[in-house]
């Protein structure tokens, strides 16, 4: 369910706060796979009955309350959406309500829309008026029922424990009907505001239309890269995303004024919006005339980003660099260096091709931090998949503090996932033993499909029949041959009578197959099996994952089998001990299993592993994937 539907009348008639909290907790467990924190439960117990009383006192008892409303294509939730009828037009009308129990809060000097609230010291938060405005904007961007009716959505932050003087300065962010802010001192004004947008008629039909609305296609990261940098902001940043964005811009201004260096670390799982933040920052800094660059350790990611601005955009293409590009950079030569996919940072920038005279052993972290006044690191610690990668929060933070640099950290993981499913991501972490609790059965998510294939043929056929972008990936358990002399790929991935080639090894196309760095984004990438080296950093609608014999089920859990892995990076037990291999191999599958935005189909080569997964995942035959009847198109 997208939201828990509650009536004002039921909340007033049965004011059992503990039972209410348990009801919402059960809703969250069913839809997200996680229970609430104690503070969340207390918030529901105190804030929701207070809102219900206000609605009753305003004469709006028949309005429908959609509690913990899930924003489309994310795991972010608005506290309440009130659904009803507009008093003047008679059309559907919605009021998004962000409830805050804050007793005191004040604007932060770190960013335009940031605030500091009592009880949360040292942590910048988004001004709730701006927070709810962005929720309204996001809903109108992505819900078809609101596409041509942005005036149907209104937003309000309700600080029902605070007086005006307690939150002095927060009202400055109120700019329209989607960003109003009321305190308990303004309770009467709040009631009048609600009556301006809602009548006391049943809101069930309006709620039905909102909850059943088709979701418009998400704004694809790569397709908007050039416009984001050249013209204007294309992405609506929500909550922690906007906090990270403003912390960087605030740090840039401070660094300019006082010769100050600050390191900012942003952590988040797949799809949490790290690269969206990077592009939004790069665009704004570029428009301000600041010196800023984007860097990654991934050839595939960097080359794809360079490719999207198009012809005649050399200046924009040159904004995208590699981590090892800053060996000779002057100190603070940049205002900002955005290190995307920072989990791929290595110990040094040297490799086997580096001339002996240039092998100084200087840490790559030192090069990156030295190059800019504000180095920004965007990472997911569960994506460290290669020996020698050092991109962890601990490593970055320790090195920064050892140099005397200030450090600020923002986590996107608490509730946010842009596309895909946060519930599924947690399920994968438990399946792979990367989080405690052990494997559990997948019990569904209305926005995400997980199915088990019983053969590679079945997996490929399901992908071919689905709509949207699709890719197949596998663990590195088969050899990887060079192309034949006739420019054809070798079918290295052989499973019984089924065989397919790996993606192209190098940076040139082979026949119809795209070069390695474009496998994830070019339509002709379907048909080759991708590996961790080409899949990491990208997402597609449907993901088919082949679990090789290097990860098998034994005695109720998944264990790694090093002898079955063919990755040259893991060949040396001296360089990569068995314990390191185990963790890295699990991270590899975590990455492969979390590339899908709409669903994942899994096939395991090992029969015992298939049997194990069959007890956890529905088979393909149990339910057709959404859009399955739509044939494959040439634009996949």
From TrEMBL:
SUPFAM superfamilies, per the entry: P-loop containing nucleoside triphosphate hydrolases
Q: Which UniProt keywords apply?
A: ATP-binding, Nucleotide-binding
The segment(s) forming the AAA+ ATPase domain are 260-389
**Its domain of life?**
Bacteria
The record's GO molecular-function terms, alphabetically, read:
ATP binding
Pfam families linked = SLFN-g3_helicase
The record ties this protein, via InterPro entries, to: AAA+_ATPase, P-loop_NTPase, SLFN_3-like_DNA/RNA_helicase
What is the protein name given in its UniProt record?
A: ATP-binding protein
């Amino acid at each position: 369910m997208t939201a828990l539907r509650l009536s004002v009348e039921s909340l007033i008639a049965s004011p059992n706060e503990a039972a209410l909290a348990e009801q919402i907790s059960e809703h969250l467990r069913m839809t997200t796979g996680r229970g609430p924190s104690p503070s969340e439960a207390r918030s529901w117990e105190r804030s929701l009955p207070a809102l219900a009383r206000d609605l009753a006192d305003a004469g709006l008892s028949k309005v429908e309350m959609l509690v913990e409303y899930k924003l489309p294509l994310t795991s972010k939730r608005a506290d309440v959406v009130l659904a009803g009828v507009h008093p003047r037009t008679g059309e559907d009308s919605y009021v998004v309500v962000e409830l805050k129990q804050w007793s005191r809060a004040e604007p932060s000097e770190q960013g335009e829309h940031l605030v500091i609230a009592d009880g949360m010291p040292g942590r910048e938060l988004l001004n709730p008026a701006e927070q709810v405005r962005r929720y309204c904007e996001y809903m109108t961007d992505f819900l078809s029922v609101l596409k041509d009716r942005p005036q149907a959505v209104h937003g309000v932050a309700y600080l029902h424990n605070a007086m005006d003087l307690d939150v002095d300065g927060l009202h400055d962010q109120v700019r329209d009907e989607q960003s109003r802010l009321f305190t308990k001192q303004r309770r009467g004004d709040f009631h009048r505001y609600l009556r301006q947008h809602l009548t006391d008629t049943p809101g069930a039909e309006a709620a039905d239309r909102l909850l059943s609305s088709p979701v418009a296609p998400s704004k694809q990261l790569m397709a908007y890269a050039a416009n984001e940098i050249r013209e204007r902001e294309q992405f609506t940043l929500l909550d922690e995303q906007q906090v990270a964005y403003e912390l960087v811009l605030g740090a840039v201004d401070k660094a300019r004024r006082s010769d100050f260096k600050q390191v900012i670390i942003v952590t988040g799982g797949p799809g949490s919006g790290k690269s969206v933040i990077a592009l939004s920052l790069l665009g704004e800094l570029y428009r301000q005339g600041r010196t800023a660059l984007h860097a990654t350790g991934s050839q595939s990611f960097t080359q794809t980003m360079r490719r999207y601005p198009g012809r005649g955009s050399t200046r924009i293409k040159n904004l995208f660099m590699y981590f090892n590009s800053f060996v000779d950079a002057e100190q603070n030569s940049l205002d900002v260096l955005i290190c995307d996919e920072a989990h791929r940072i290595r110990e040094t920038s040297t490799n086997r091709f580096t001339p002996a005279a240039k092998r100084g052993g200087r840490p790559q972290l030192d090069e990156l931090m030295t190059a800019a006044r504000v180095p920004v690191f965007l990472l997911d610690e569960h994506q460290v998949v290669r020996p020698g990668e050092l991109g962890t929060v601990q490593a970055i933070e320790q090195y920064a503090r050892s140099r005397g640099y200030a450090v600020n950290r923002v986590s996107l993981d608490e509730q946010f996932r842009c596309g895909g499913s946060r519930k599924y991501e947690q399920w994968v972490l438990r399946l792979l033993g990367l989080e405690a609790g052990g494997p559990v059965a997948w019990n569904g998510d209305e926005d995400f499909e997980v199915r088990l294939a019983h053969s590679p043929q079945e997996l490929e056929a399901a992908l071919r029949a689905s709509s949207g972008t699709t890719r197949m990936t596998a663990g590195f358990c088969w050899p990887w041959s060079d192309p034949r002399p006739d420019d054809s790929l070798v079918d290295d991935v052989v499973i019984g009578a089924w065989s397919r080639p790996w993606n192209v090894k190098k940076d040139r196309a082979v026949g119809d197959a795209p070069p390695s760095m474009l496998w994830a984004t070019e339509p002709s990438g379907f048909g080759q099996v991708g590996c961790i080296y080409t899949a990491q950093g990208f997402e597609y609608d449907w993901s088919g994952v082949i679990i090789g014999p290097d990860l098998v089920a034994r005695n109720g859990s998944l264990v790694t089998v090093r002898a079955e892995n063919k990755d040259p990076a893991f060949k040396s037990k001296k360089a990569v001990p068995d314990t390191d291999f185990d963790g890295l191999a699990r991270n590899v599958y975590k990455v492969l299993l979390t590339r899908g935005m709409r669903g994942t189909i899994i096939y395991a080569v090992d029969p015992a592993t298939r049997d194990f997964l069959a007890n956890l995942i529905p088979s393909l035959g149990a339910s057709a994937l959404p859009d399955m009847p739509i044939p494959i198109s040439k634009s996949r």
